[in-house]
Amino acid sequence: MTWVTIGRLEDIPVRGARCVDTPEGRIAVFRTADNRVFAMEDSCPHKRGPLSQGIVHGTSVTCPLHNWVISLESGSAQGADVGQVRTMAVRNDNGTLLLDLAELRIAAE
Amino acid sequence: MTEKLVIIGNGMAPGRMLEELFEKAPGAYDVTIFNAEPRVNYDRIMLSPVLSGEKSFDDIVIHDDAWYAKNGVTLLKGARVTEIDRDRRTVTAADGRSATYDKLVIATGSTPIVIPVPGHQLSGVLAYRDLDDVDRMLEIARNGGRAIVIGGGLLGLEAAYGLKRQGMDVTVIHLMPTIMERQLDPPAAYMLKKALGDRGIDIVTKANTKAILGTDKVEGIELEDGRVIPGEMVVMAVGIRPNATLARAAGLEVNRGIVVDDGMATSDPAIFALGECAEHRGVCYGLVAPLYESARALADRLAGGSAEYQGSVTNTKLKVTGINLFSAGDFAEAPDREEIVLRDASAGVYKRLVLKDNRIVGTVLYGDTTDGSWFFDLMKKGSDVSTMRDTLIFGQSFQGGAPLDPMAAVAALPDDAEICGCNGVCKGKITSTITGKGLTTLNEVRAHTKASASCGNCTGLVEQLMKLTLGDRYNPAAVTPMCDCTDLGHDDVRRLIIAKGLKTIPAVMQELEWKTSCGCAKCRPALNYYLVCDWPDEYADDYQSRFINERVHANIQKDGTYSVVPRMWGGVTSASELRAIADVVDKFQVPMVKVTGGQRIDLLGIQKEDLPAVWADLGKAGFVSGQAYAKGLRTVKTCVGSEWCRFGTQDSTALGIRLEKFMWGSWTPAKLKLAVSGCPRNCAEATCKDIGVICVDSGFEIHFAGAAGLEIKGTEVLGQVKTEDEALEHIVALTQMYREQGRYLERIYKWAKRVGLDEIRRQIMDDAEKRKGYFDRFVFSQKFAQVDPWSERVSGKDKHEFKPLVVTGFSEAAE
Ligand code: SRM
Ligand SMILES: Cc1cc2nc3c(=O)[nH]c(=O)nc-3n(C[C@H](O)[C@H](O)[C@H](O)COP(=O)(O)OP(=O)(O)OC[C@H]3O[C@@H](n4cnc5c(N)ncnc54)[C@H](O)[C@@H]3O)c2cc1C
Ligand code: SF4
Ligand code: FES
After folding, report:
1. Which residues sit opposite A57 in a β-bridge?
2. Which long-range contacts (CB under 8 A, 24 or more apart) does B465-473 make?
3. Alpha-carbon distance B366 to B344, whole Å?
4. CA atoms within 13 A on the CB side of B248
5. What is the CA radius of gyration of chain B?
6. Which whole number is the average pLDDT over B338-356?
7. What was the pLDDT predicted at B314?
8. CA angle B421, B363, B460 (to 5 degrees)
9. DSSP one-letter code for B455
10. Subunit contact A2:B806, Cβ cutoff 8 A
């Protein structure tokens, strides 16, 4: 595990997302209505739409390009669509958010 | 041989009586009605929504002219009867028209009480009884100012609310220490007063009016304690008196009202009295439900039957949008009475039941009135409630561990439980009519049973009954739910947002029982639009419920970059504007510059992070957002018109620019595109736009409901007007009507198809008052909408949106 501090919970709007830029691409970090935090690649399995720009509802996000619905928990497309986004672990330590970049780094090497 | 039936007064009671009579004994009578009001029978209780602008007069007509024609009824409009000659059996009106009768029904209603304080004859002192009163109120309200309502009862408060909605300041003067003291106990009155206060209505209690001030029209009032309240209008709503003058003059027996027996006959067996003018077993009623019950009895009598009216127990609801209030029976404290009270301050709920000998004798419900009809039913029947005493106050669904399912609650109601209070329709009548007549739609049920046909509060219950009776055959699929989060369709949601005064997305989801915790990408943007549209001044836009384009005020592209389209008013630009665009293109290395189909310039391929800087530069040159992304006003295309073109008849360019400047920033159900062409050659392609104008020599032909995207459709003509000002007013009013009625993402042509072109023409072209109302509401909402989103973002709003949370490299990340 490689935990990197990325900011505070309140930096992300409720039912919204912010991005973390890494050399391997953008990670989208989501905050739900009940203040849970999820992270995944900012790239829709359909046509690489930026998921961070979508509407967050429940524990899903709707992609802004063609409305696929992606589960924030599993990264998989919902309903009739089939596809998978890579997710990463985020931790909320009293409001400080930490992202586990280990997996991404392995992918990059 | 048909008998001659003459009716004096054309109010709600005789209207209902005639319906029953024609059903029971068609053709038995030759009917003539004298009506002092110059119009057909309408739903008087719905005058309040007409006053508040939530309904139009046409919406509340009960019997139109065609109905009288069809039933062979002679309706004499504007005929005030001045004499009944019982010997010759004739009645005569002030204008000389007269008729002879075999049977006569007096249904003259009541007259509002006017307190004879000094100044009560001044112009601007009004009663609240009929459409003419409402018209006069609206006329005065148009100039704003303050309205003073004397009387804090049902009528006074509804008047106050309506006048407030019309933009007046409102003060209510009430004699007693608490408002609606006859229907409410002090805690409920307190909550109501607070809720009305929140709506901007001042209420002064324990106040007695000493004089109305002014020389020829109202300028204010003076209270006994010396306080002076300035105002432009005084509405007296201090009570009503049964209108029995005619009967008294004719020598009939009269107490407070015209005395009738259980067959509704007066002391003259050929003469009956019905409605608020009648006094039955010592009681004069002032609500429609009991009048309808007696109307049924009278119809039966006139048809040769022997029905007896037994008197009624009444209940009250207040028709102030967003306030739920129910009261029935007697709730004064007394030694032999007990009470059960439930309060939930955070939910704004107060419920009180008054029991005597284990039976409910009074009910006051504030905030949550779902169980009103159940309590009322227990009370009317005098049911012993001792076995459920402990849980009674929690309502019906709580009893016997029954599931908290509204369907089950309705299923559990007995057949004689009243569903529609206004029309006195019980459950059994609805279910048996559905089965008997094979009804499948709500409108049919309304037509045949009258349930939910008046104030509409019981629509939900009626629909549940239909579902219960018809099972799968009741196809509310006619209503397509907004999305999987709810079973309600867009129209119901819109109606309920207004009716329940819901002002936030969580409130909508809570009150309308959303099935998900925070909605989905379909319903949230729709709700956000409805709330922005309905409460322009109060609702705070929910940014996270907007689609990305509307959140960052640019259009997202397939590669995640954005496009930027500044407004070019009416398609007109200048060297300095073009220069500023060129500079932005160079500075930010914009990869693509394109002239759009909407007569302006699109800069494509801009990085999200650069957007605020691009806007800052464009803003310096005077550009604002073109809202090329908005479900709102997009473009107004124009042609060169009379200023340049040899065929131009009017200055189409100027009108287009004027429209765009007036309407930019407004949110609409779907995008809205306009065009103005200078002559019928139509170079601006106005006849395939949402709204288009074709200029002609004699004025402006307004078109609407065109389409040229997924579907292609020429426009329809709305009508023709003479001046540019009128063109603007009509177009704006049309837009507002669409804003208020359109379903989210429904383009104007689809909406128009749904509500009917004629209806739209009628409201916008023919009904000046309606049009003005729409226009004014649009103008009001523009006060909050016309803020350039780009300059807002340049000055720092939503900063987080344009910057990554953090930029990290792996070297630091690795430990
Ligand atoms: C830029 C432009 C094409 C151009 O290069 O000329 C354009 C570009 C887009 N149009 Fe359009 N439309 C453009 C004029 C039109 C016109 C012609 C007009 O306005 O005179 C039409 C037909 C008229 C109409 O609106 O019906 C048009 C009918 C559509 C439709 C079909 C709408 C429909 O209900 O039938 C869509 C899809 C939608 O809205 O769901 C659409 C959607 C789009 C979107 C927003 C697609 C999207 O959702 O991302 C495109 C955005 C590109 C961008 O980032 O700028 N565009 N689009 C035009 C911008 C006009 C402007 O200045 O604002
Ligand atoms: C603003 C408002 C809101 C109300 N809200 C509610 C509510 O929410 N619930 C409820 O149950 N009730 C409500 N009511 C009361 C309800 O409207 C009345 O109880 C009902 O309309 C009475 O019906 P009616 O037929 O007896 O008399 P009306 O409907 O008053 O009709 C009487 C008619 O007779 C005419 N007339 C009088 N004298 C003569 C004459 N000499 N010759 C010819 N015609 C004559 C009058 O012009 C009038 O048109 C409300 C009333 C008002 C004014
Ligand atoms: S439509 Fe008429 S006014 Fe407009 S450019 Fe063409 S000819 Fe001229
Ligand atoms: S790219 Fe996400 S739905 Fe098409």
Report:
1. A60
2. B465/B410, B465/B419, B465/B427, B465/B430, B465/B431, B465/B434, B466/B434, B466/B439, B466/B440, B466/B442, B467/B407, B468/B407, B468/B410, B468/B411, B468/B431, B469/B430, B469/B431, B469/B434, B469/B435, B470/B434, B470/B440, B473/B440
3. 10
4. 9
5. 31
6. 81
7. 83
8. 35
9. S
10. no
Per the structure block, which two tokens stand in for B366? 């504030």
Give the integer Cα–Cα distance in Å for B140 and B232. 8
Neighbouring CB atoms inside 10 A of B736's CB total: 24
Strand residue runs (E) in B443-499: none
Angstrom distance (rounded) from CA B565 to CA B15: 59
Identify the contact set of chain A against chain B, taking CB-CB distances under 8 A. 2, 4, 6-7, 11-16, 18-24, 26, 29, 32-34, 47-50, 53-58, 60, 62, 64-65, 67, 69, 101, 105, 108
Say yes or no: CB of residue B319 within 6 Å of ligand 2.
yes
Token look-up 């909406």 returns: B751
> Would you give the DSSP letter of residue B742?
P
Q: What is the DSSP letter of B762?
A: I
Q: Please tell me the predicted confidence (pLDDT) of residue B587.
A: 96
- C-alpha triplet B560, A30, B508: angle, nearest 5°: 100
**Alpha-carbon distances, residue B405 vs B397, B409, B800 (angstroms):** 7, 6, 44
β pairing state of B359-366 and B325-329: antiparallel
The reply to whether ligand 3 has any atom less than 6 angstroms from the CB of B640 is yes
Domains of chain A listed by start with CATH number: 3-100 (2.102.10.10)
For the purposes of burial, counting CB atoms within 10 Å of the CB of B637, is it exposed (0-12), middle (13-18) or buried (19 or more)?
A: buried
* pLDDT tens column, B253-289: 999 999 999 999 999 999 999 999 999 999 999 889 8
- For B53, which DSSP code? T
Which 3 state secondary structure label does DSSP give B134? helix
Q: Is the pLDDT of residue B346 over 70?
A: no
> Does the pLDDT of residue B148 top 90, yes or no?
yes
Longest dimension (CA), chain A: 38
In angstroms, rounded to a whole number, what is the distance separating the alpha carbons of residues B149 and B128? 10
Fill in the amino acid letter for B288: V
Pocket of ligand 4 (CB under 6 A): A 44, 46-47, 49, 63, 65-68
What's residue B44's pLDDT? 94
Among B542, B805, B808, B811, pick the best mutation site for testing chain A contact (most A Cβ within 10 A).
B805
In this model, does residue B323 exceed pLDDT 50? yes
CA–CA dist B312, B544 (Å, integer)? 52
DSSP class of residue B403 equals: -
Q: How far apart are CA B373 and CA B376, in angstroms?
A: 5
Q: What is the pLDDT of residues B559-613, one digit of tens each?
A: 999 999 999 999 999 999 999 999 999 999 999 999 999 999 999 999 999 999 9
Residues of A in contact with B545 (CB under 8 A): 15, 55
* A8-41 tens-digit pLDDT: 999 999 999 999 998 888 999 999 988 999 999 9
Report pLDDT for B404: 47
β B712-713/B716-721 pair status: unpaired
For B251, counting Cβ atoms within 10 Å of its Cβ (0-12 exposed, 13-18 middle, 19+ buried), the class is exposed
Phi/psi for A35 (5° steps) reads: 65, 25
Close Cβ partners of A2 (under 8 Å, ≥ 6 residues apart):
A100, A101, A102, A105, B813, B814, B815
pLDDT band at B237 (very low <50, low <70, confident <90, very high): very high
Tell the residue number behind the tokens 């005789």, with chain if given.
B14
3-state secondary structure of B82: strand
ipTM summary value: 0.65
DSSP string, B22-38: HHHSTTSEEEEEEESSS
Lowest mean pLDDT among B529-533, B647-651, B666-670, B795-799: B795-799
DSSP characters for B642-666? GGT-SS--S-HHHHHHHHHHHHTT-
